[in-house]
Structures are given as C-alpha cells and as structure tokens.
Amino acid sequence: MTESQRFRASLRALSKGQALDALSLANELQASGDKADHVSAHICKGLIYEHGGEGLPADLDRAMQHYRQASLVLRDQTTFCDMARATMKKGPAYFEEGLKYLQEARSIQDGPEVDLGFAEYYKSRPEPDYPLARRYFARAARAGRFMGFFGYAEVSRRMGQNARALMVDALRLVLGPFIALLIGSKATGRF
Fold it and tell me: Does this model's pTM top 0.70?
C-alpha cells in the first residue's frame, strides 16, 4: 500500500467510526521516512483524536498537538481551520483562540472553507451574531459550497426569517446538480 493509499484508508476507517484502525494506519504512515508522510500522519491523527470513534474517545488536546505539528511544516489554510475547529469544540472559553486560528487561515489563503469557519464561529459563539454568520454562509454558498446554503437557511430560521430560509433551500435544490457538475466534490467542502 502506498503512503497516499494509507492516508485515504485511514480517513475512510475514521469515517466508519473505526478510530483504532485509522490510528494504526496513521502510525504506519508516520513510520515512513518521508517528511510529507509525517505531515499527513499528523493531520490524520489530529482528525482521529478530534472525532474519536469505536475504542478511542475524542481527545481535543491531543488533536491540537498533532495539528500544531502539521502546521510547523505545512503552513496552509486547512491546517489552521482544523486547529480553529478543534479549539472551538473545547467550549465557549476557547472561541477567541479559535478566531485567531481562523484569522491566520485567512491570512494564508482566503476561501469558502475559511468563510464556513467564520460563519460557524459567529453562529456558535456565546453571544451569536447571526447577521454576520449569515453573511459568511452566503459567501460560501456563492462559492458553491452546500454547507453555505444549509448554514444560511439555519441562521435565517434562528432569526425568525422562515420565508428567506425556504427560498435558500429551494435555490439549493435547483442549483445543486449544476454546482455538483461544475465544481464536483469541492461542493461538499466543510469547515
């Protein structure tokens, strides 16, 4: 099995809830002598510890350790978004730290996944800012991310704007097949 196959196999195992199998594959990936494989292993382990699974509970502190290790070598927006997401999962006291990671991700490269991160931050922080969250969800939706449509509709409902939410849901259903054809799997991008 090649290292890229091992990376994908680890993520597949994690998506099935088989965290211990995913961790075993990530450890094999890390045992490789290639520096790029070490980064991939840290990203895998970060995801494994962030989400947990059968036989392995989530451990956000360990997830952050692996994301930080990856960010030391690979300075990209995805790694900083991962750190922001894991940090915010630790609770309301950590939201400001999560915001700093999102700002760092944006300074590296702005994009719809970063917009989804900011939207989630403003939607979920202790004192939500729904209008601002909706603005970020709209940016992600305009970039063809389905989560932008879903988030926009959810926040609109929380604001009592059910007609607007229904309109966005209908728009997503009409545009969905075209978006999927135009940008493919990127349309399912998440924060």
Answer: yes
